[in-house]
Write a structure and sequence with these properties.
Layout (H helix, E strand, L loop, with lengths): L4 H14 L1 H12 L7 E4 L5 E6 L5 E9 L9 E9 L4 E7 L9 H4 L1 E2 L4 E4 L2 E10 L3 E9 L5 E8 L2
Parallel strand pairs: 5-6
Antiparallel strand pairs: 1-10, 2-9, 3-8, 3-10, 4-5, 4-9, 7-8
Length: 159
């Protein structure tokens, strides 16, 4: 019986370590689902977007994109815009998903987003604006360095 105890302890340890992994992954993908967000807006065909929040707390605004799967793994998207709060103050933002973007002028006016969230099969999310407090409006546009790259895009405030 003494020879079995280490194996039982090892099996219990494996279960305690392995079981939470799928749960953590599932929560991350659920958090970055625009349809489950507190507020979300789809990017229009011309690349423009407008997201209005009701002020239900603070948070971070993300941009989720779905790209053409036949392109390379380094998408060339540029996201620019402004956050307007209830007092009328505006905060600009500008992000690009590729270090050397082919969108004219993008490297000079945007920062490279090096962290992507919930990445899977041509979809990913990047943080575009943080520190939101109270009601605000986020407006802007998305440009692609490769025509037809962006299939769908969303701007959202996770739940």
């Amino acid at each position: 019986m003494g020879d079995v105890a280490p194996f039982i302890l090892l099996a219990a340890l494996v279960v305690l370590v392995a079981v939470p992994i799928p749960i953590v992954i599932s929560v991350a993908f659920r958090r970055h689902d625009p349809k489950r967000a507190r507020a979300h807006a789809e990017v229009a065909a011309d690349g423009s977007f407008r997201l209005t929040t009701d002020g239900g707390g603070s948070g971070v605004v993300y941009f989720r994109f779905e790209i053409d799967g036949s392109t390379d793994d380094d998408p060339d998207l540029v996201i620019r815009g402004e956050v307007h709060d209830a007092r009328g103050a505006a905060q600009s933002f500008g992000w690009r998903t590729r270090a050397g973007s082919r969108v004219p002028g993008a490297d000079a006016i945007t920062r490279h987003a090096t962290v992507m969230h919930a990445v899977t099969g041509g979809r990913a999310s990047i943080e575009i604006a943080g520190g939101l407090r109270g009601p605000c409006t986020v407006t802007g546009r998305v440009d692609a360095g490769t025509p037809g790259l962006l299939l769908r895009g969303w701007v959202y405030l996770p739940a």
